[in-house]
Design brief:
The chain is mostly helical and 236 residues long. Helix content is 72%, strand content 2%. The protein has nine helices and two strands, in the order H-H-H-H-E-H-H-H-E-H-H.
């Protein structure tokens, strides 16, 4: 029995398991543990493909399983988190009771992206639109920033349901936007070939060290910004 062929799919299922646990914590509004279990799921998501290529056991089952696991960890969980954030802010702003459910537009956008990703041959070496794991980290960082900020401006922004709705629509849009984003995968050990990735990693580390949870939010936005700048320079 070839046990190697089961390793990648087992890792993928660990991603799904992490997402299920994160989902429970998200419903309980324990956003810290929800964030860390989503991060753990994303860790597994990165390595399932790595081991599939290492053991040469890639196949259609793994591709579909990966997207199904991501749908929970990086699709349903951020939708629940945004639903909960809107649910906690809408009552004080005299908005319709259905507004919090709009948070699940993030889940719908994630689902559409994951389905499109599986049949889009352009995304083998880079991404078109924000990957669902990056989007999940962006959304899950928001309640942590809210809970740990000393800035009244940031506090007022993150308890404003209108701003949260803007973030929701932006999230659903950027997941499926025709915006090329660079991949973080290193295929050649060359500083010149990986200069953009190295710049991003250094800046991300600085942001995380200086800004804490806000650094996660800023890192995802930096990723989109650097990709846009890189695309502009490449087009010249």
């Amino acid at each position: 029995m070839n046990l190697k062929k089961h390793v990648p799919n087992t890792i993928t299922l660990l991603n799904l398991f992490s997402g299920c646990i994160a989902l429970i914590f998200a419903f309980e509004e324990n956003f810290v543990l929800a964030f860390y279990f989503v991060a753990l799921g994303i860790f597994f998501d990165f390595f399932d493909g790595f081991f599939a290529r290492l053991f040469n056991v890639t196949g259609p089952l793994g591709v579909q399983l990966d997207s199904l696991a991501d749908m929970v960890t990086s699709g349903v969980v951020p939708g629940v988190v945004m639903y909960k954030m809107l649910l906690n802010t809408v009552p004080g702003h005299d908005l319709p009771t259905y507004v919090p459910y709009l948070g699940f537009l993030i889940t719908l956008g994630s689902c559409y992206r994951l389905a499109k990703f599986n049949i889009d041959t352009r995304q083998s070496d880079s991404f078109i639109g924000l990957p669902t794991p990056a989007n999940a980290l962006l959304i899950l960082s928001l309640p942590l920033v809210l809970a740990n900020t000393d800035s009244l401006t940031v506090l007022e922004m993150l308890v404003n349901p209108w701003l949260l709705l803007v973030v929701t629509f932006f999230s659903a849009f950027i997941l499926n936007a025709e915006l090329p984003l660079f991949s973080l995968k290193v295929k050649e050990f060359s500083i010149k070939e990986n200069a953009l990735q190295l710049i991003f990693l250094v800046l991300s580390l600085i942001l995380l060290l200086l800004c804490g949870y806000l650094g996660v939010t800023l890192t995802i936005l930096l990723y989109v910004l650097l990709s846009a700048v890189s695309n502009k320079l490449s087009a010249r």
